[in-house]
Specification:
This protein has a single domain, classed as lambda repressor-like DNA-binding domains (434 Repressor (Amino-terminal Domain)). A two-stranded parallel sheet has the order 1-2. The chain is globular, with a radius of gyration of 16 Å. The chain has helices at about 1-25, 30-35, 40-45, 55-65, 70, 100-125, and strands spanning about 80, 90-95. The chain is built from six helices and two strands. By secondary structure, the chain is mostly helical. The longest helix has 28 residues, at about 100-125. Helix 1 (about 1-25) packs across helix 3.
Length: about 130
């Protein structure tokens, strides 16, 4: 059951990786090079075929200049740019990221993921 949950989340996040990369007009090969993996490995993340980590989300967000929260939320219609002063239609601009806020958001994401894993393990035990 845990595997099904992971795949579901990976598909949504992967779709967001793809959409925002396309909006930014970046090639998958360029993103892959930035994060230090092959293009084939990166596109597996976009398709939701590989487990997506916080580290990957942070690296991709940095390269695409978006708030990492936008990569893990369901709606990518509006997103926050990191360090951009140029307004773009339909995009909320954000000038820089407060390091303490980023650390807090990362910790919150990690805690949520850990809690989800615990819930899935408990559900598996109940279904046995």
């Amino acid at each position: 059951m845990e595997q099904e949950f992971t795949v579901l989340e990976n598909k949504m996040v992967g779709r967001n990786l793809y959409k925002i990369r396309k909006i930014r007009e970046k090639k998958a090969a360029d993103v892959a090079e930035h994060i230090g993996i092959t293009e084939a490995a990166y596109t597996k993340y976009e398709r939701g075929e590989s487990k997506i980590t916080i580290d990957l989300i942070q690296k991709v967000a940095e390269y695409l200049k978006v708030d990492p929260i936008n990569l893990i939320t369901a709606s990518t219609g509006h997103f926050i740019e990191i360090g951009s002063n140029s307004p773009a239609a339909g995009i909320n601009n954000y000038n820089g990221v407060d390091e303490k806020l980023m650390a807090l958001m990362t910790k919150m994401i990690e805690n949520q993921m850990a809690m989800n894993e615990k819930i899935m393990r408990l559900l598996e035990k109940l279904n046995q």
